[in-house]
Amino acid sequence: xxxxxxxxxxxxxxxxxxxxxxxxxxxxxxxxxxxxKPFAGKTLNVFTFDHPxxxxxxxxxxxxxxxxxxxxxMDTPSFMIYNQRADLELSTGSGAFDxxxxxxxxxxxxxxxxxxxxxxxxxxxxxxxxxxxFMPGAMAPEKKGDDVLALPFVAESTLMVYRKDVLEKAxxxxxxxxxxxxxxxxxxxxxxxxxxxARGLGGFHWIWPNFLLAYGGRFFADPPRxxxxxxxxxxxxKSADVMGKLMREYGPPGAASFTEAQASTxxxxxxxxxxxxxxxxxxxxxxxxxxxxxxxxGYALPPGGPAGRFPQTAVHGFQIPAGAKQREVSWEFIRxxxxxxxxxxxxxxxxxPAVTRASVLASPVYRQKYNWGGADxxxxxGSVLKLGGSGYMAYRTVPEFPQVGDxxxxxxxxxxxxxxxxxxxLFMNAHTVVGRVAPRGAVARPAEWAPFVRPAxxxxxxxxxGVGAGxxxxxxxxxxxxxxxxxxxx
Length: 490
Prior knowledge:
Elements: E1 43-47, H1 52-68, E2 71-75, H2 79-92, E3 99-102, H3 104-112, H4 120-124, H5 136-139, E4 143-144, E5 147-148, E6 151-163, H6 164-170, H7 178-188, H8 204-214, E7 220-222, E8 226-229, H9 234-250, H10 260-268, E9 274-278, H11 279-282, E10 297-300, E11 313-319, H12 327-337, H13 340-349, H14 358-361, H15 364-369, E12 371-372, E13 375-376, H16 377-388, H17 401-416, H18 422-437, H19 456-465
Parallel strand pairs: 1-2, 1-3
Antiparallel strand pairs: 3-11, 4-5, 6-9, 6-10, 6-11, 7-8, 12-13
């Protein structure tokens, strides 16, 4: 795929800072400076999603209130629910929230629509923020040109956590490919431990791309230049079939509806042998206070496939919505919540390795703490960001992706639960996706769609007579449909 300047967001991401210093010893943020409480009596409404970082911020909030006088109300629904509500909220510009999360999959849409306030002037007058300390790959998706629209609090990377004791007992090595994982699954499975764990709710279009790209599939031909859907290719179908079989036959019952918190709890309880998800969630398996298997886990990059290895990356930050009414108060929270001191403290006192500041990632305390099962988590995290910088994550920040991702999640849910086969589910999905992306220039169809595309002459006849018309029309004069034995359900 060709490079896309903003959306191939992690260029140079692993150029980690060599800034010295221990976690928690960075220059204090202004909220801790003792300069008085100019915002005393103010109440701030923060809207983000449930995640280890906001959870940790809640425990530190009394310190922020003591230092600034600002009372913070924080709403943290699940990631999927947050995106639905936030998209509606930002589109109305109501100003109901003072700070919101800028999520990666919506960054192209929200930034492009002007729904986030540029922070440049606020940053320029506040040297203690030190935006140069944020890793380049973490800052890139928070910007449009020279405008900074958010400050990142998490740079996610997909990793695999595995039970070393279970793999050793089964006599298997850490799987290098998804085919290896599928072959090893029967040996890893037991009455107490499922071989494979992944979440479905809000996670299908985050976990499946690890499979999809590894088998040579793609969402789109070359986003954003060529948005031709590529979801019904043999490679895509193979990847969905493998993931579906792993979840259906070797995963916990109900995993298709698991949230992040539910899936991570299963791993922490010792009920799974392998678990692929974002670093912030798989990292909880090593939590010394909560995990029952903390001394028996190891970490590795997710498996690969015939096309290579393609771990996923995502960056989320705090933004000031364009409609926010008390922007100075909003900024006070953002600068504190993403400061070196606060991020360092959270990394040191909780299990939170998915940091965005280079000084925290490079600190001796971080390097010592986040060495789990012999794996250097910081190095793995950095390698994922570097791999993502090659351009394959461009699909995820095109404005169309949230809708396409929702459709893909429905198809994958049906495949995982056995309601449809992989080819059936993805052909149905591809049929509905065409109309959502074709306006961006997708005219050509993949060659393997040829048996299912009606000639333009027949399409014209259908328009005139209505005979043979389907329920959903593809754009530009064609009607694209799956094999005849299937019925289209929108």
